[in-house]
Amino acid sequence: MSLNINKTKKKLSEVQKRSFLLKVKNLLKNSFPILATFYINIRYFLKYRNGKEILVKPHKQGNEIYHINTKDLVIGSKILLNGSFEFEKVLKVLRLIKKKVLNYIFIDIGANIGTTCIPAIRRGLFKKCIAIEPDPYNFRLLKKNININGIDSKIRIINTALGSVNNKKAIFELSKHNFGDHRIRNDNIFNKKNYYLENQRKTINVKLTKLDNILKKINPKKIFIWIDVQGYEGFVLDGGKKTLSHNPPLVIEFWPYALERSGCFSLLKEIIINANYNNCYDLSRNVNLGKLSSKKFDKIKSRYSFEGKFNSIKCKMLGKSETDLFFYN
Question: Could you tell me the pTM of the whole model?
Answer without folding.
Answer: 0.84
